[in-house]
Amino acid sequence: MNIFFTIDERQRVFPCCDDNGQEGEPDWIRGEIEAPAYEEHGVPRWKFEIDRCVLRSQEEIQADIDAIPLPEPTESEQLRADVDFLTMENESLEADVEQAKADIDYLLMLTEEE
Fold first, then answer.
1. 3-class DSSP state for residue 5?
2. Are 63 and 29 in contact (CB under 8 A)?
3. Do residues 61 and 74 share a domain?
4. How many domains does the chain have?
5. What is the pLDDT of residue 45?
6. What pTM did the predictor assign?
7. Which residue spans within 8-112 are E strands per DSSP?
8. Burial of 16 (0-12, 13-18, 19+ CB in 10 A)
9. CA-to-CA distance for 64 and 57, rounded, in angstroms?
10. Contacts of 38 (CB under 8 A, 6+ apart)
11. Are residues 79 and 114 in the same domain?
12. Residue 9 pLDDT more than 80?
């Protein structure tokens, strides 16, 4: 498919519109690619080399996928994580209290034997 596109500093191709015999903007480049222009994560499949568009390597595409930031947790997801953390902290404190009680009982037992 013939398209107009722009490129970034890494020469990745970003389609602007189909080339329907019209004139593109001054900074657009005319070229040909096969659809689709982007892979499933929204990463460009094409790059511009010398005077034509070529498919990017799987390593180039994977590097872009790996650089996609993870989404921020929603308010309910963050609240759930906070509750889980506090629950674990509480269980740990309860275990410490139980151990302290056992230690006191043991010490009381030793003093009663004397």
1. strand
2. no
3. no
4. 2
5. 97
6. 0.61
7. 13-18, 29-32, 46-49, 52-55
8. middle
9. 11
10. 44, 45
11. yes
12. yes
What's the pLDDT tens digit per position in 23-54?
778 889 888 998 899 999 999 999 999 899 99
Asked if residue 114 has pLDDT above 70, the reply is no
Same domain, 11 and 60: yes
The answer to whether the peptide bond before residue 44 is cis (omega within 30 degrees of 0) is no
Q: Name the residue range of residue 31's domain.
A: 2-66
Task: Compute the CA torsion angle 20, 24, 27, 28 (nearest 10 deg).
Answer: -10
> Which pairing describes strands 2-7 and 29-32: parallel, antiparallel, or unpaired?
antiparallel
> 60 near 66, Cβ under 8 Å?
no
Residue keyed to tokens 């010398």: 50
Helix or strand or coil: residue 17? strand
**CB-CB neighbours of 37 under 10 Å:** 16
Pair 16, 56 in one domain: yes
For residue 41, the model assigns a pLDDT of 95
The token duo for 87 is: 């629950």
106 contacts: CB under 8 Å, gap ≥ 6: none
